[in-house]
Specification:
Helix content is 48%, strand content 14%. By secondary structure, the chain is α+β, with helices and mostly antiparallel strands. The protein has 3 domains: 8-109, Acyl-CoA dehydrogenase/oxidase, N-terminal domain (Butyryl-Coa Dehydrogenase, subunit A, domain 1, Orthogonal Bundle); 112-220, Beta Barrel (Butyryl-CoA Dehydrogenase, subunit A, domain 2); 227-379, Butyryl-CoA Dehydrogenase, subunit A, domain 3 (Up-down Bundle), CATH 1.20.140. The longest helix is centred in the middle third of the chain and has 35 residues, at 227-261.
């Protein structure tokens, strides 16, 4: 296996384009083309299918580097890597139900993740989208998905919906649909505070059909110990944490550069790198960053090594996501204070990072859901109050 390492010159090009994509609310077509030419979209595809066969730990490190260069590009690509990464994690455990994902990714198909729904705070444990079985063994899906990253370019969309054919035993049906199928409408509605280049537009499913061979899971409503759900949480949360860790890395670089560049009249013309308060802020940011990076690596490695954390897996994964995204916000905030008022201008890179990092609040699992998961693991479930 020869893992892909994103070249410094490619990352420099990606970083140089990021301000324009943010300003114009555009999609990073050139970034995606460069990454595709490198073979990066086949990072999780096994070597036998022409991919790099990378581990989750290896991809997480490259996503952190990409996140430091252009967070929105990294977050968009993350969604393709999540879908292919799920297939890879399952395959490593002897489950080939998503082998078709790896085969199609090897042929250049671009996958996106279409699970988020407005008002669905149960996330993966229920769905507002309806799934209707067809006579041919597939399903028709009707519903609206939000935050569908890669909207301008995806060719395959991983979705799920609820089948109420048996009202006493509703099922959550997971499938992959193709963009050319009738019944798909992608809205042009992505105009956000940050992460603008992800172009995560709303996707309307109006009776779009997934044939039986592309329906890979029918699970009971509610939490599940199915390997697919584990793989989904593991890859999604770890790669998300990696991107936000990259934002923290870049913020510290910018803070250090600003501290050496800015001079202080109160300090007799010395740079702010000599100011004790600024030194404390930079050190505080570095301490926070140094604490999160090994956590991302360690948990990714445990997935790769098939470590059995049992019931602890989900608290560990959602906890990592919350720590990484919240940690990145703290680091960016300290960097912004070090850099001073210039970072408040629209064209400032730190100002853009400050807007981008806020998106971490909204990714699953959010703070409330994560804390509920961890509390249940530590304390047991809440018992009903006797009537």
């Amino acid at each position: 296996m020869t893992p892909i390492v994103l070249p410094d010159e490619l990352l420099a090009r990606v970083a140089a384009r990021a301000p324009g994509y943010d300003r114009d609310n555009g999609f990073p077509h050139d970034d995606l083309a460069d990454l595709a030419d490198l073979g990066y979209l086949r990072a999780f595809v096994p070597e036998r299918l022409g991919g790099a066969g990378m581990t989750l730990e290896q991809v997480a490190e490259q996503q952190a580097r990409l996140g430091a260069a252009a967070p929105a590009t990294a977050l968009a690509v993350n969604m393709h890597l999540v879908v292919t990464g799920i297939a890879s994690v399952l395959a490593a455990r002897g489950d080939t139900s998503l082998e078709f994902v790896l085969e199609e990714a090897s042929r250049g198909e671009v996958f996106a993740f279409g699970n988020s729904e407005a008002g669905n705070d149960l996330v993966m444990f229920d769905s507002r989208t309806r799934a209707f079985p067809t006579k041919a063994g597939g399903y028709r899906f009707e519903g609206t998905k939000i935050f569908t990253s890669l909207s301008p370019v995806w060719t395959r969309l991983a979705i799920f919906g609820r089948d109420d054919t048996d009202p006493d035993r509703p099922l959550l049906v997971h499938a992959v649909i193709t963009r050319s199928s009738p019944g798909i409408r992608v809205a042009d509605d992505w105009d956000t505070l940050g992460m603008r280049a992800t172009q995560s537009c709303t996707t309307v499913l109006d009776g779009v059909e997934a044939p039986g061979e592309r329906v890979h899971r029918r699970l009971p409503v509610g939490p599940s110990r199915d390997p697919f759900i584990f793989a989904l949480f593991a890859v999604f949360e770890i790669l998300l944490a990696a991107v936000y860790t990259g934002i923290g890395r870049r913020s510290i670089e910018l803070a250090v550069a600003a501290a050496h560049r800015r001079t202080s009249m109160r300090g007799s013309g010395r740079t702010y790198a000599q100011d004790p308060d600024i030194r404390w802020r930079v050190a505080d940011a570095v301490i926070a960053q140094d604490g999160i990076e090994p956590q991302v690596v360690a948990l990714a490695r445990d997935v790769d090594d098939l470590v059995d954390h049992g019931s602890r897996w989900f608290p560990l994964l959602v906890g990592l996501k919350v720590r990484a995204t919240e940690n990145a916000r703290v680091v960016v905030d300290q960097a912004l204070r070090v850099a001073g008022g210039s970072s408040y201008f629209a064209g400032s890179e730190l100002g853009r990072l400050y807007r981008d990092v806020l998106a971490g609040v909204f990714h699953p699992s959010d703070g409330e859901s994560a804390h509920a998961t961890v509390a249940n693991a530590a304390l047991g479930p809440v018992t009903p109050v006797p009537s």
